[in-house]
Specification:
amino-acid biosynthesis, alpha/beta, proline biosynthesis, 11% strand, Pyrroline-5-carboxylate reductase, 5 strands, oxidoreductase, 6-PGluconate_DH-like_C_sf
Length: 223
Amino acid sequence: AIGCSTTYDNCEAASTSEVVVLAVKPAVVPRVLHDLTPCVTPKRPLITSVALGVTLATMEAALPPQSRVVRIMPNTPALVQLGASVYCRGSHATDEDAKTTMRLLSAVGEVDEVPEGYLDAVTGLSGAGPAYIYLAIEAMADGGVRMGLPRPLSTKLAAQTMLGAAKMVLSTGKHPGQLKDEVCSPGGCTIQGVAALERGGIRAAFINAVHEATVTSIKTSGN
């Protein structure tokens, strides 16, 4: 037991809460907002949503006037406290609401406030991005196996290398290109590997992945 109270009544849950998080499929959100309408006031609770494509305007239109809403785009590494989340405020959300949202999301990783217009691109980058990185880790591990490494060791080395490289970018503040250059000694094996990746179109592949995911998010949300 973790000390949580449960209920099947959305209004009951909201009426005893300071913050409500809508973490349901987008198609279910209108029903939940309808359920919440009788128990939401300008004073409480703060309504937050992680539902893809459900805009601030949609939430505000479905709730009573002056309702305070915040839209959030997290990603799955929040499960290991390494999330990359963003949020945007509705027209009636306060500075205190922003602080509350920041406090909640910073407990599971990094968080930034952004304009709502950024959210589709954020979805294409950090929302979908873990899948891109899993593919990169798997491919690097396959390369290690190809060259004779045991699968568990190869996967561990690939994942830890990805984690370490990301930490270098965040901790040093250096441009990724500079960090790459610092690893590539003249005529060395690293620059040969980089050249192979460039021949494979790695940059274009990642850029196109973010583009395609963003376009899909735009189509989903109707923005």
